[in-house]
Design a protein that fits this description.
Elements lengths: L9 E6 L6 E5 L2 E5 L6 E4 L1 E5 L2 E5 L3 E5 L5 E5 L13 E4 L5 E6 L6 E7 L2 E6 L4 E5 L7 E4 L6 E6 L7 E5 L2 E5 L7 E5 L14
Parallel strand pairs: 5-10
Antiparallel strand pairs: 1-2, 2-3, 3-4, 5-6, 7-8, 8-9, 9-10, 11-12, 12-13, 13-14, 15-16, 16-17, 17-18
Length: 200
C-alpha cells in the first residue's frame, strides 16, 4: 500500500477454506494473501455473459461458498461491456473465471453471508436483505427500514431468523428473518461479525 495515496476501499474480506489464504477485494483489485508468509498475489478475473466479456476485480464483492466455489457480485471493470450490475456471479477456479448465476443487470449485492444452509445478501438496488436456498439462483426478499441504506449485516449462528444490520447511523435487529426491524442503537458505520451465538 502506498501511504502517500488515499487508502483503498475494502469491498470484501474472506478466507479460502481450501488454501487458508485471505481473499481481499478493493477498488484497486482482488488479492490473495498467504496467511503464513504474507505473500500477496493479484487475481485478474474475467466474466463471460450474453456472449460478452469483461474483467472483474476492482468492484467485486465475494464470499467463499466452500470448496473451490466463490460467489460474488459487483460491476465490470470496463464500462459498456456488460450491464452495470453483474447480479450473482460464481467462480470454481479461485476467481479467475466467473459466470452469471442470476440477476444480470438487476441485482447489486453489497454483502454476502453463508449460514444455516442459506445464502444471505444485501441487495443495494432493492434495499433488501435477500435469502437463497439454491446458491443464488432464486431469492426471497425482505425489505430493510424505508430510506435506510445498510452497510453491513450478520446472521445469528444459532438462529436463521435473527439478523442484525447496520447503517451509517444506526443498528437494527430482526427476529423474523427480515420481515420486521427495530432500531437497537445509534452507532455510525458499525461493521459486524457473529462467529458464535454469544459473540456478536
Amino acid at each position: 500500500m502506498d501511504f502517500t495515496q488515499p487508502p483503498p476501499w475494502v469491498n470484501a474480506l474472506d478466507i479460502d477454506p481450501k488454501t487458508g489464504e485471505f481473499l481481499l477485494t478493493t477498488n484497486r483489485g482482488f488479492f490473495r494473501i498467504d496467511a503464513d508468509d504474507d505473500r500477496v498475489t493479484p487475481v485478474r478475473g474475467e466474466i463471460s455473459a450474453d456472449a460478452k466479456q469483461a474483467t472483474v476485480s476492482t468492484f467485486l464483492q465475494l464470499a467463499s461458498a466452500g470448496g473451490n466455489r466463490l460467489v460474488g457480485s459487483g460491476h465490470p471493470d470496463q464500462e459498456g461491456t456488460l450491464p452495470t450490475y453483474l447480479g450473482v456471479i460464481e467462480s470454481d477456479d479461485g476467481g479467475r473465471a466467473w459466470r452469471s448465476v442470476s440477476g444480470l443487470g438487476e441485482v447489486d449485492l453489497h454483502r454476502i453471508v453463508f449460514k444455516h444452509g442459506r445464502m444471505y445478501a444485501y441487495d443495494a438496488v432493492l434495499g433488501a436483505i435477500v435469502q437463497s436456498r439454491d446458491g443464488g439462483r432464486t431469492f426471497t426478499e425482505r425489505f430493510t427500514p424505508s430510506g435506510v441504506v445498510m452497510i453491513d449485516f450478520e446472521v445469528d449462528p444459532a438462529s436463521a431468523r435473527r439478523i442484525v444490520a447496520s447503517s451509517d447511523t444506526d443498528l437494527y435487529r430482526s427476529d423474523d428473518g427480515g420481515e420486521t426491524w427495530r432500531a437497537l442503537d445509534s452507532n455510525a458505520g458499525m461493521r459486524l461479525a457473529w462467529p458464535a451465538a454469544d459473540a456478536l
